[in-house]
Structures are given as C-alpha cells and as structure tokens.
Amino acid sequence: MVTTGVNYKHLDCDGNGYVNDFDADPIEQHYAPIDTTEVGWMPGAPKIRVRFSEDTIYINPNNPAPLEISADIIVGSPGTPVFDLYGLAFALRYPEFVNHDPEVFYDDDLLGSTTHCLFMSEDNYSRRQLDMGFARKNGQGVSGFGRIAKINFVTDFIIIVDITSRTSSNIVPLTIPLQGIEGHR
Fold first, then answer.
1. Residues 1, 13: Cα–Cα separation, whole Å
2. Which one, 27, 85, 96, 114, has least CB within 10 Å?
C-alpha cells in the first residue's frame, strides 16, 4: 500500500505478487497526476535528461506548417549509471505552444523489452504535464544507462512566436523540465 494513493509507479495493483500487464487497468482507474513539487537532487546521483535530436530548429517563414520536435529521455550516463533500477516515474512539463498529447514511444535500450517492462504515459494538458511510469515486470532491476523513451512534440510554433514571443533575436527556447521523479530499487 502507498500512502499517497495509486500513481504511475511500480505497484502490484492486482495483488498477485507480480508487476505485469494486468496491473495497468487499476493504475488507469486510480491515476492522479504526478506531484511536481520541487525536490532537491542528490549530488552524484544519476540524472534523467531530455536530449533533443537537434539543438537548433530553423523556421522557414514561407512554410508555416506545424513543426515536429523529437527528443529522447535518457537515464544515467557512462560516468554515473543507475544501479538495480526497478521502477521509475516522473513528469515532463512542456510549454504552452506544444500541442496536446505528445507521442511517446517506449525504448528498450535500458529497461528491456516490453516483455520485461510495463510502460505507461498520461498527458495532463491543463497542467502541460506528461507523466510517465516504467516498472520492471520480471522482478529484476537493471543497471547501466541509456534511452528509455522517445517523444515527438508537435507545435504550431510560427503562429505563437509571431503573436506572443517576438524578440529582436527571433530565438524562442524550448525547455522541458523533469519533475516529481521517483525511482525504486
């Protein structure tokens, strides 16, 4: 039992002693957005980060089509890997110019195939928050570092930049902070 209620964490929700696909239904029924209260990061702990496929996107004013911005979610690094990671949940906060319900694709680089990992995501557009949860289904933690997901953000960037964010440099940053991080081993 968890005192804070059911959330996208590594819980055995149906009480059979295993985390498996049958746990997804109770999680969805009792889901509540992840609390994004700021918590201090422990020095030397592995980091979770968003890595964009491009560091700069140039907009052609003659092509006002919506933009797709891709990013990888990376856990750990070669110098600071995770050890015996069993479950992980966190929230990504995205800016208002990103469209509702970003596409999220699980990547088995670190946590293993979908046979070994339960992955769920939920978009909370009113909070501009994308919650993600990962749990190992085979009862064994993993160690190392790598990509756990890919996200595609779509935006009608040109319209919003032209109206609300016009600056002399014409550069608008895209910041995606990770919050409410909880890892279990």
1. 9
2. 96
Give the residues across from 70 on adjacent strands. Answer: 152
- Cβ atoms 71, 51 nearer than 8 A: yes
| Distance from chain centroid for Cα 78 | 20
In a domain, 39, yes or no: no
CATH number at residue 82: 2.60.40.680
Taking CA atoms, 28 is separated from 41, 77, 103, 143, in Å, by: 29, 31, 18, 28
Per residue of the chain (185 residues), give pLDDT as tens.
334 433 334 466 666 666 766 666 667 766 788 888 776 667 888 888 989 888 777 766 676 677 888 999 999 999 999 998 888 888 888 888 788 888 999 999 999 898 888 888 999 988 889 999 888 887 788 999 999 999 998 887 554 444 455 555 555 566 666 666 666 55
As given in the structure block, the two tokens for residue 159 are 């319209």
Q: Is residue 71 part of a domain?
A: yes
**Cα separation of 42 and 167, whole Å?**
37
Domain that holds residue 49: 45-55+62-184
Q: How many Cβ atoms from other residues are within 10 Å of residue 102's Cβ?
A: 21
Inside any domain, residue 2: no
